[in-house]
Amino acid sequence: MTSVKLAAGSAFPAITLPVLAGGTRSLSAPRDGFDWMLTVVYRGKHCPLCTTYLKELNAAMPDLKALGVDVLAVSADSQPRAAAHMAQISQEFDIAYGLTIPQMQELGLYISGPRNGMDVEAPFAEPGLFVINGNGTLQIADISNVPFSRPSLEWIAKGIGFLRGPLKDSPINGTYA
């Protein structure tokens, strides 16, 4: 399986998925008066490190909200699996589910098969974190092929604060051509 790496500074893919709260959400479009978007891809219910990371995301929510950042977490899990998983987390952000293999590839994610996890029903995405700025442009991208290599959410929030403040007129990192 191959995926294409998303280019920093490019438009984020227009992917819409169902959410546990009902309805659908775009992975790139903030709602409720927010103008930036943080989309976190997690492996799914089978991953205890994902559970920990999503709880850390809860702790970062006040800072992210204060910065005008909407948050959405997404996995390939089915609705019942995602709902059962979130019962452990009491998340303060929307949860999208049903990410497909073509969508994982479009996001440039690493994809693992059922043999890479216990209690896994189908291929799943490895972790990814994407910050989309107010122009719908990919500002920050972080992908990993393992669940234990993820950016600090505290530092992501601090970094967004710098990008929205003192560095607001700086070019997007990684766009030198």
From TrEMBL:
Source species, domain of life: Bacteria
Keywords on record: Signal
Coiled coil: none
Domain Thioredoxin: 6-165
CDD domains (alphabetical): PRX_like2
Presence of the UniProt keyword Signal in the record: yes
Residues making up the signal peptide according to the UniProt record: 1-21
Protein name stated in the entry: AhpC/TSA family protein
The species this protein was found in: Novosphingobium beihaiensis
Source organism phylogeny: Bacteria, Pseudomonadati, Pseudomonadota, Alphaproteobacteria, Sphingomonadales
